Prior knowledge:
This protein is of the alpha/beta class. It folds into 2 domains: about 5-20 and about 105-235, HAD superfamily/HAD-like (Rossmann fold, 3-Layer(aba) Sandwich), CATH 3.40.50; about 20-105, Putative phosphatase, domain 2 (DNA polymerase, domain 1). It has 11 helices and 6 strands. It has a 6-stranded parallel sheet with strand order 3-2-1-4-5-6, with helices on both faces.
Amino acid sequence: MSLERVKVLLFDTFGTVADWRGSIARKGEKLAREKSLPETNWDAFARAWRAGYKPGMAQVQSGERSWTPIDVIHRERLDEILTDIGLDSALGEDERQAMNLWWHQLDPWPDCLPGLARLKQRYLIGTLSNGSIIGLAGMGKRAGLPWDFIFSSDVFKAYKRDAAVYLGAIDLLNLEPAEIMMVAAHNDDLTAARSHGMCTAFIRRPYEYGPDQTSDFEPEEDWDVDCHSMEDLAKALGT
C-alpha cells in the first residue's frame, strides 16, 4: 500500500504509546511507601490488573453486558485484586478512586514525545484507543502528548477489535481508509485495521508485559511499516 496517501496517524495507546506496566508498578511502590503497606509485588499487581481488561471488554462485546466504560471495568478489577492480595482492608474508597485514576496518568515510552513531535509536523495524529476520553485526555495533558484529536471507545460505544471502532474513525475523519494509518504494538489491532483498508505500522514493544509477554515480539504479517520506536516510524515516513 502506498504510504504517500497517508494523512492521519491513529495510535493505540496502552502499550504502544504508554508504558502501563512500569507506570502502575511505580505508582504502587509510591503508595506502599506512603501508606506503609505490606510488601507487594507491584509489577505483578500491574499485570494482574491489566489481565482483567480483556475479559471485562469481552462481556460488552458479546452482548452479555451493555456498554460499560473502561474506567468502570478497571475499577471492578481493582477491587478483585485488592481482595486477592490481602489489601482489601488497607485501602478505602478514597484510595481506590485515586488508584483507578492511575490509568489516566501513565508515562509514555521515552521515544514517544520526540517521535510524535516529528510526526505531527507532517500528519494529523490522534488516538484510537480503548481508553476513556477523560483518561486519554488527562494522560496526554500530563505527559505532553501532542494529539490533534482523541478517538476513544467512549466515542463509538465499542471496544477494539470491533469493526465499529475502525469504521467509526474512518467515517469521522471523512477520508479514504488508505489515507489513515493505524500504529500499534499489537498484531491483532493491525489485522483489524487492515481488514477495513487502513495502512498499518507495527512498533515493537517487547517489554510491555514483562515476563508475562508471550506475543507481539515481532510482526506476524507484512505490515506497511515495521519499526522499533516512534522515532523509527518518523524516519520511515520521511519526517
